[in-house]
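Researcher: I'm preparing a figure for a lab meeting and need a structural model of a single chain. I don't have an experimental structure, so a prediction will have to do for now. The sequence is pasted below. Please return the structure as tokens so I can convert it later.
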Amino acid sequence: MEIIAIANQKGGVGKTTTAVNLTASLADKRQHVLLIDLDPQGNATTGTGLHKNELELTIADVLLDGVSLQEAIVKSPAGFDVIAANRELAGMDITLMGQTNSHELLKSALSDLVAEQANQQSQPYDYIILDCAPSLNLLTVNALVATDGVIIPMQCEYYALEGLADLSQTIERLTELNPKLHIRGVVRTLFDARNTLANDVSQELDAHFGDIMYRTHIPRNVRLAEAPAHGIPVLAYERWSKGARAYQKLADEVIEQSN
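Model: Understood. Here is the structure written out token by token.
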């Protein structure tokens, strides 16, 4: 089982789009996958077809009330397992302030999940995908402490380069709490090959990050933008669109990394 956080402190870079569609593409390739929504906006939850405010249990119940992850898992209409989020997560930092080991709550819950699945002899997950909020709050720290590696969605513009530098420094600092923590890969999102600036920034990324840059470029694509309004991943909305095919290629790269 691999735990992968999808993180970027900058908003609007396709982070949740990547979390939902990478999960869907991995599941389509017969991988057993769990998506955990750690953003109070709950966009990853609604993007899988779930009604975020109608669910009995969410990740907030896990982190605040000690409910097990196993109890909070729901099967999404998209066909894979999800632990949902909604506005109950808002203010988590204040609620948990001063609590011992508040940064390790998710890590502990994931360890319990692995043990519970082993005891029940149920199929373990191949991947657990964590969708992080676009900020360095306690929820994101929990994800980075619990994860094996981080996938960073990156829009090819210069402001995004600054955000990437900040996140890289954050990851380096948090290795004291999680020695396994590393950047698994950087994926270019909202990419337009006709844009000179996008190509210039893309070349800078290749020069700086080299082997950890994914070969796949996620394009600007109308179908990718439309799919969330229908509450489904782009793979279910328009399987042969450029966006869907790009995320299928990204899933292939992620699986290749694991082998």
